What does this fold into?
Amino acid sequence: MLILCEKDLHSQPSRLAEAWAGADTFVLLPDKLSVTDEWLAQNLSLIPHSLHRDHFIMLTSGTTGQPKLIVGNRERSKKLVRVLHDLQDSEPVQETIAMLPLSYTYSFVNQWLWSQVLKRRFVTTQGLSNPKSLKETLEKARDAMICLVGVQVPLLMNLLDGNVFQGVIRLHFAGGRFPQEKLEELRGMFPNAQVFNNYGCAEAMPRLTIRRAEDAGEAANIGRPLPGIEMRSDDQHAILFRSPYGAVGVVEDAQFMPITPDDWTASGDLGEMDDHGSWCLLGRASEVFKRHGEKVSLSSLATTVSGAWSGQCAFYREADRTGEDGCVLALAPEATSESVKPVLMALRKHHPRAHWPLRIETVATLPLLSNGKTDIRSLSSLPNKTALWQQHI
Amino acid sequence: MTNKEKLQNLIQDVFLLTPEEFRFDLKRIEIETWDSFGVVSLSVGVQQTFGYHFKPEEATAIQGVDDIIKLLTSKGITFE
It folds into this structure.
């Protein structure tokens, strides 16, 4: 099986197009590998021979940090690209500027594959790690689409504040909380862009729903399922889906699990459908827990904190000294006792005490996974975190 | 830091009050966050800050900041 590493594609970008055009299934790995060569070899060997042609494989760790291989079908993904092209009104778009790693299914399908199928220009960048070069690229953009994750917005605003990029006409978000409260600032920076909230997961390869930013006022609203996709939630509110574009199998916990057309797959989030057919996220399945009998949603807390803190925020779980489940809020960049006060007041206003974090800590930067999401595992074990406030428990 | 200042900081931390909202004659009924878990948190905070652990009946009887001062004063902790 052909294995492509993202770092090799920087110097030889044509290799990916060649692999896609070839018959053999290939694997696309991120720059920073979270698994050993042995893990990879063992897990790739579990993929059935029937999938060794016409497919592609991505490695994902998600927010839980548990690595898994996702097997996508090329024809299915090409169909999804055409569906997205129509729904996202992408016909006027002439180029897409990559600001996320290609090994992220969102960037791979929404941008790279879209550019291949629709014959549009694919522009690589080093993302926010090289703001000067990114600024120049965005200034030169003409009828461009960019795809971001919400956690990039405070960094974008910090690094490129005051700049206006007229040439970006589509702005997509996925892979985390939609930055609804930053829309005005985003529209100042990208005045000609239509903004979309995309939702999905790696198993969906990767899209499930979409909505235009202006179609709802809440970040948690992820819009309606794409045509052909069925969604429902179980009695615990876990979102389940069946998609004609989704992955055909997953290697996880040392076993291959096929995904058949009849299978309902969990997206990993909790949610519910409203009366208009739009879905609202209640949080990650791993981000909702009970404390003192109260259901605590980290997603809901993040919404509250974002209204009072202009930087980044993340939560990690921790039990208090009595063994009761709780969470710790981390703020970045460095907060002070003074700047944390509006956050505390917002928590008091919107949440009962059981929802309040055990502590509020500050770090210079949040550790990130290669896909741009916060590395919760690293965050919880990060040294040199400063506690600005804590509950007396 | 004086004991008065320590107590003010503690009350503000436990009940998420601003300095402007804090008064030494503040009553429990005026603080919406002074709920049952707030009582526990206050009790733990007082122990951590002043080294005195409220008895259950004492914690229940406290109806305002001045009651905390009276109680701790009776245990030899001064607030002048």
About this structure: The radius of gyration of chain A is 21 Å. Chain A has a mean pLDDT of 91.
